[in-house]
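>> received
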Amino acid sequence: MTWTTTDELACTYEPLTVGAVLGHETHWPHVFAVMKALAGRLGDDGVRLVVAFD
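>> returned
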């Protein structure tokens, strides 16, 4: 789906899949591996992921 804004900016909507966002070609599997290791050492309640997107 594509549309144009009042400023003549063309916008395109493309649906995302979980694999595209969190798949093996991203850096997320490394983050989750570290979280899993920390949870194994500190317990599930001792591990949190806090992120900010700019």
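>> The CA atoms of residues 1 and 13 lie 5 Å apart.
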